[in-house]
């Protein structure tokens, strides 16, 4: 299927840095040979394209959703190192000209940069909270800071941390509940006391109508100059699904759009979105709308939008195989199955619903019409990639290009030419 023409929507993107020209390596794998056109997965090859800490450290690392800052010509990407409950994780800055990697904050198993919050635990031992173990998503924060979503699993809380890129120091913006420390609230140095005083987490309810402080969001979020936006899951039962906002100055969240499995909607309007299986796997932002993609669903995944000003909900694109007449947008590709998405000039890029074990096929959605198509890598390092192991990391502002994580390396893929090359390994 042919790709849709590039859509000039970069001015509406959250990062809004396309006024600065992004400088990438001058590589054209369709025109000739270049060292960046060949991808080798031998351990000895990792760390050889671009200098600095390699992404592959010999364990179970994972690259998540990040963003491009065109002003500094850099990509910021989260690296979860051990994929388990620990403190190993990092924010990595990648120079888009060279592929060089710099650890901005975190702990890679050997080196540390930045600090979290020191506290005294219930046994009187010193500890440090707000680490980057389980870091999943990065978004640009106020005053040049970086916001990171950290989640160590279903039985643990979700945190939004603010990172100072100059020092790597981390502070807490929001968490889904108070730190699970059994020390008394008035104990000297108790982390619960610290968080209540610093992050203003003493509200009886994090979301209006919830009545609980353990409401846990999806592992993605968006942000603007005032608020961060979280997708909620009706968990615990009776709290509702939808979108909430949290002031970047800290504090409790309030519902922007809230609905329940029976179709009722106390806040906002429009169709209820995926109430039976609300797995929000990726997000983006265009103008006043926060976008999400979800799955897996028997009827096909979808891309949806919630207006942060009005709470109105709408389906952007969906192929409903159970009820084709309810589909939105043209095209035969089901969307939103594996993970993250990114919004760029060429539209919305995400993984396809149905994966191929031996090919690279990326889903593209026109945000205006909902039309679905898919792109491949005709040339370059992603030509032999696989659907089952790539992540859409970020869009490159002002271009038709996206940055793709595949086999613990970063690749650049052009939706217009369908060429790809190695950025950093």
Write a structural description.
The chain has one helix and 29 strands. By secondary structure, it is mainly β. The strands form seven sheets. Strands 1, 2, 3, 4, 5 and 6 form a six-stranded antiparallel β-sheet that branches. A five-stranded mixed β-sheet has the order 17-21-20-19-18, with no helix packed on it. The protein has a four-stranded antiparallel β-sheet with strand order 9-10-11-12, with no helix packed on it. A hairpin with a 6-residue loop joins strand 15 and strand 16. The radius of gyration is 21 Å and the shape is globular. The N terminus is likely disordered.
Which terms summarize this structure?
425 residues, mainly beta, 6-stranded antiparallel sheet, 5-stranded mixed sheet, 2% helix, 37% strand, globular, disordered N terminus
Secondary structure: number of strands: 29
Q: DSSP strand (E) fraction?
A: 35-45%
Element-by-element helix/strand order: EEEEEEEEEEEEHEEEEEEEEEEEEEEEEE
For the terminal residues, how far apart are their CA atoms?
31 Å
| Structure classification | mainly beta
Give the overall silhouette: globular
Low-confidence stretches: 1-19
The description of the largest β-sheet is: 6 strands, antiparallel
The overall pLDDT average reads 84
Rg (C-alpha, Å): 21 Å
Fraction of residues in helix: under 10%
Number of helices: 1
Question: How would you summarize what this structure contains?
Answer:
The chain is mainly beta and 425 residues long. Helix content is 2%, strand content 37%.
